[in-house]
Write the structure tokens for this entry.
Amino acid sequence: MLIVDDKNTIFSSENVFFFVGIGGISMSALALIMLEKGFEVRGYDRDSDTPLVNQLKKAGIPICHSYYDGVFDGVTRVVYTAAIQDSDIMLSAPRTMGLFTMERSEFLGQLMKTEGNPIGIAGTHGKSSTTGMISSIFLEARRDPTVLVGAEMPSLGGCYHIGKGKDFIFEACEYKDSFLDFFPGVAVVLNIALDHVDYFGTIENIIASFRKYIFIAHTAILNYDCENCHKAAEGYENTLIWFSESGNENADYYAGNMRLDNGCAVFDAYFKGQYLGVLHLGVVGAFHIGNALAALATAHSQGIDFVFIQKGLASFTGVKRRFERKGYYHGALVVEDYAHHPDEIRATVSAALSIHKNHVIAIFQPHTYTRTAKLFNAFTKAFQGCHKVLFADIYSAREKPNGVTSQMLAQQTENGLYCPDDESIVNALDELVQKGDILLVLGAGNINRIIPKIMKVSQ
């Protein structure tokens, strides 16, 4: 882990930043933040025509798509994404030249040290949505925070916002322990479950990492209903705040009288037995009650009046690829969601069932072989209530095949059907989908490529 004692060493005005893998959601946001702070920014990405890459080019950032002699001329700082291998010439070349290099999480950690009140949102599920909720509340309260979300937030016009206030609200991802490079003053943990098994291996290792993250902060806001959160917080002696969506009155913040209004949660909010008022959420799904309580606890403990919390949560309509309504296919509502873990899939299916009386049909692209193998049985049970589940091939991401396949998942899942290519997905949908159904497109890979194809067919 790189430690830089003097932040001015990195952020002095003469530095020229080069971002390797600049087209990623977080890397693009960091590049734009540095550009807006007045630094010269350049970058590399293998993809030449994506919405984020095009946005960066439009902002005036020069981007190359392959190595060439002189590409690093004038550069003083190189920031790279964790997806870049040490052997990649776009990383090995600047190191050979003796240039200063930092991994994305290390750079973000140093950046937040320049901010007055870093608030990090971590957890296996719900990070982007909760970061969005908290940001919406702080903006409603005119705190004008700096925000960095791991997904596009329509109300921000992107995945970041540079504010003039002291608050820095950011999503803290646990993969490869990247959140241990951060310096949150307030550490929010929504839940802790088995995931990223290619790195962590066991739930005990995950809990240990979250424990380290929590102990960095002077204030921890944790889910009382999550047993693993209790394990991670053992021995924590700073300010500890609990929230409970199950209504457990032992928590500091908890919900009561929970109900749904057109699929959106409505509930009474309490703080240490005191009734605060009613919260109406602007996003579909009962599972968002826990996210909203985490946002409530964060904002309320930071001195924000409850009326701003009400307005901020009501006006927050979600982030991209999180129960995002895309349009209609043969009269069926098409919803895209990033869900790629069994818990997330169950929550998304439940949300769909809460707003539709007709059939719910899912298209699912599993994400990574190790996750699919380790959580295989849980995946087969995650789609209960679906009329049909179409399985696309596994999105390999950073991995090589290990024997598990989507065909195996389809065979073990009730109403499952394996579709080896996009054409077979479209053909199956053409036979299955009826007006009034809801079609879920699920996965963290590139399964959303199917959406424009089926929309075109529908037209």
DSSP finds 16 helices and 21 strands in the chain. Residues 1-7 have pLDDT under 50 and may be disordered. The chain has three domains: 13-104, 115-315, 324-458.
